[in-house]
Specification:
Number of strands of chain A: 20
Largest sheet of chain A: 6 strands, mixed
Low-confidence stretches of chain A: none
Strand content of chain A: 25-35%
Strand order of the largest sheet of chain A: 6-7-8-3-9-10
Number of helices of chain A: 9
CATH superfamily of the largest domain in chain B: MetI-like
Radius of gyration of chain B: 24 Å
Oligomer: heterodimer
Shape of chain A: elongated
């Protein structure tokens, strides 16, 4: 159990900068998710925390301990690998006991703690087996049991669910969440799956090209993305982005023909920047499709209607962009029908047209 | 469940041809071995007889024991074993770490290193023999088991390095890293995880090296006078020996190779990328 403090950590592979001077403080007992597309540096950052990679700059602290120059074994971490990395030549029992044996715990304690870890993951019956006799899901459980069996300051997980099939992944995700809430330990969890990140993390750090773009709670990251990339990476469908123009010194906004009055935080932001071109970001569920024009609506034409059960997803072509809109499941929309979109003014995000950063 | 339709005639025909070819190749290799074995276990009178029987008529150890008890044979067997064990130990001690490095690390010159390893086999021993002997004499290594073993090591190293590197590539790096996160040093992770997993393959590679040394004739013949290895002695003696001696000697030197093939074929196949079951 420890706070993790990362200060200006940098990692280069030849000419490629995998992690660009990243700083991040992860409070004790927080479950943080590093989220990003493949190649964004999230796994490299995790491996820098683990000590499996030497940093090229910056420091890493666990609590008061500066672990930057410590070898992996002295950092008191435990880690779950994407490939599980369960030792094929040892029984499940010996796999789970490995960390305890390395700490020279007495046999009685080893036995007790292996049993406890196995029970937490419901694999008590498998202890005598060899990994080759287990299914992928069972091996995954062994890998997690092995990581939690011994005392470590932080628990690191590198895409632990990505090798499981979809159904098993859902089941294991919920179980992991329960388990980690019970464990009360600091967890750094790497994934490229935004649903996994939203459902598991206390906070999500969204990474792109070696940099952290935003660190916030799942709902904040979802509702108020700090950058164009965050909005388009998180959520299904991704956030819609429309070219818009701030007018009247920030009092309002035009999107094509439609005028929108800004409220709250976004109105303040618009007033700060004054009249200029911006990106307007809005989620599909914050747009209401209407069958007739209104004072602040955006005209368009329905391209695709996709009934998804709980709601219906519309793809609408407007003069400005293609927009994804959620309609009620029983709404009578058909393809090729004109539609008018009403944007919820309190749910829009304004982003800088050149940097993509939220205003 | 519908029955699978019979493959077309041309497919069946080509399968028959493949098997036919395989049987021919097998016969080509096995027939002489078989005949030698029959003779090696026949009594002397039968071996001298003509025509020789295709099936063993009388099984006897007379011929084999005549060979084993001939002057110098046991000594040269001892030398052969000694040389082969030296070769095995030295080439694994040097080759396995090199193979591990090739498998685990990307380092500048790595690709060139791979090619350089192989290029050591580009110099025929025949050309090297005179400078080798003069060097060996000046170092006092001539006519010794260690001297032959050193040359055999040089000959075996390329394969040892490339084979062990492919073995270690097969042991996932994650496993060692996992061991390190749980408190192992790098060396400890190697010893507890990578080594046990690589052991069967390393054993096969070791036996391969052993066989290479056991069968090697030329270098052993030119580097030794008194302390000859078995092949070196046989190459000198076979032509001037009675027929039973030749059959027994031929059989004796074949056996380890056959035993090795039976033991190691699974590993050899997997090393070369073919999965056998």
């Amino acid at each position: 159990m420890a706070e993790i403090r990362i200060e200006n950590v940098r990692k280069e592979f030849g000419k490629v900068v995998a992690v660009k001077d990243v700083s991040l403080v992860i409070p004790d007992r927080e479950f943080i998710v590093l989220l990003g597309p493949s190649g964004c540096g999230k796994t490299t950052l995790l491996r820098c925390i683990a000590g499996l990679e030497q940093v090229d700059g910056g420091r890493v602290y666990f609590g008061d301990r500066d672990v930057t120059d410590l070898p992996v074994r002295q950092r008191r971490i435990s880690m779950v690998f994407q490939s599980y990395a369960v030792f094929p030549h040892m029984t499940v029992f010996e796999n789970i006991a490995f960390g305890l044996r390395m700490q020279h715990k007495p046999d009685v304690e080893v036995k007790r703690r292996v049993q406890a870890a196995a029970e937490l993951l419901h694999i008590e019956e498998l202890l005598a087996r060899y990994p080759a006799q287990l299914s992928g899901g069972q091996r995954q459980r062994v890998a997690v049991a092995r990581a939690i069996a011994y005392d470590a300051d932080v628990l690191l997980m590198d895409e632990p669910l990505s090798n499981l099939d979809a159904l098993l992944r859902l089941e294991m995700r919920a179980e992991l969440k329960r388990l980690i809430e019970e464990l009360q330990t600091t967890v750094v969890y790497v994934t490229h799956d935004q649903v996994e990140a939203l459902s598991l993390g206390d906070r999500i750090a969204v990474m792109k090209q070696g940099e952290i773009l935003q660190v916030d709670s799942p709902l904040t990251v979802y509702d108020r993305p700090a950058a164009h990339f965050v909005g388009s990476f998180i959520g299904n469908p991704p956030m819609n982005f429309l070219p818009a123009r701030v007018i009247d010194g920030g009092a309002g906004l035009t999107v094509g023909e439609a005028r929108l009055m800004l409220v709250g935080e976004m109105a303040d932001a618009a007033r700060r920047v004054g009249s200029q071109e911006v990106w307007l970001g809005i989620r599909a569920e914050n747009i209401e499709p209407l069958t007739g024009p209104g004072p602040t609506t955006l005209p368009g034409r329905i391209l695709v209607v996709e009934p998804l059960g709980s709601h219906t997803l519309l793809t609408v072509r407007t003069a400005e962009a293609m927009i994804k809109v959620n309609a009620r499941a029983d709404a009578p929309f058909r393809a090729d029908q004109p539609v008018w979109l009403k944007l919820s003014a309190d749910k829009v995000r304004l982003l800088d047209k050149t940097t993509g950063r939220a205003l | 469940m519908t029955a699978r339709p019979a493959p077309p005639l041309s497919r069946r025909l080509s399968r028959v041809l493949v098997y036919l070819a395989a049987i021919l190749v097998a016969l080509y290799i096995l027939a002489p071995i078989y005949l030698i074995a029959v003779m090696a276990f026949s009594p002397r009178a039968v071996v001298y007889g003509y025509p020789k029987p295709l099936l063993p008529t009388q099984i006897s150890l007379e011929t084999i024991s005549f060979f084993i008890n001939s002057y110098g044979i046991l000594d040269s067997v001892k030398n052969s074993v000694l040389v082969a064990v030296f070769t095995l130990v030295i080439s694994l001690a040097i080759g396995a770490p090199a193979g591990y490095a090739l498998a685990r690390y990307i380092f500048p010159g790595g690709d060139i290193y791979r090619i350089l390893i192989l290029s050591t086999r580009a110099f025929p021993v025949v050309i090297l023999s005179i400078p080798l002997i003069t060097t060996y004499i000046s170092w006092g290594l001539d006519d010794s088991a260690l001297g032959v073993a050193l040359l055999h090591t040089a000959m075996a190293l390329p394969t040892t390095i490339l084979v062990t590197s492919s073995i270690f590539v097969g042991v996932s790096k994650d496993l060692e890293e996992a061991a390190m996160t749980m408190g192992c040093t790098r060396a400890g992770a190697f010893r507890r995880v990578a080594l046990p997993l690589a052991l069967p393959g390393l054993a096969a590679s070791a036996i391969f090296t052993f066989m290479l040394s056991w069968n090697e004739v030329f270098a052993a013949a030119i580097l030794t006078l008194q302390n000859q290895t078995l092949p070196a002695r046989l190459i000198v003696q076979l032509n001037q020996s009675p027929i039973p001696f030749r059959f027994a000697g031929g059989f004796f030197i074949l056996v380890p190779a056959i035993v090795f093939m039976l033991f190691a074929r699974r590993y050899l196949f997997s090393l070369w990328g073919v999965k056998l079951r």
